[in-house]
């Protein structure tokens, strides 16, 4: 009779495996479409905020979500090898103008940043359906505290960027495209 328990769970294991494979397939297909992914995340966030607004509650969940998003943002803006914390033999940020250029490698890549934010909004949305998470709190205090936390954290991050002379964005950098014709380099400055 030991086989009966394993036989009963076999369809569930197969369904879970199929679902996981299909989910990963669509996640992989969405990788090059960053604008569409971020628009979908904005839609999910709007649905979450509408839910919180109409229910008039779940401010603790929103505060926790805000702190988690701030943590993700710091990871997204930070270099993989922080020159303040570790000395590496591999690629590091240039600290002087005469240093060799090394590309900025994020601690949290854009895709994982997007995926974590979207997942966080979905989990927070599901949590709004359980009244145990609706702790009564004076929300303006939480909002003020979160704004102060955002200001102090971003100030520290910007000072780190200035000290080690790096910009975590691709604004103004060269983009490589297809050649336009003979004699063109294929580079475009935006």
UniProtKB/TrEMBL annotation:
It holds the Pfam family Rer1. Signal peptide: none annotated. The chain crosses the membrane at residues 36-54, 60-81, 137-154. It comes from the Eukaryota. GO terms for biological process: protein retention in ER lumen; retrograde vesicle-mediated transport, Golgi to endoplasmic reticulum. Its main location: membrane. Involved in the retrieval of endoplasmic reticulum membrane proteins from the early Golgi compartment. This is Protein RER1. The lineage of its organism: Eukaryota, Viridiplantae, Streptophyta, Embryophyta, Tracheophyta.
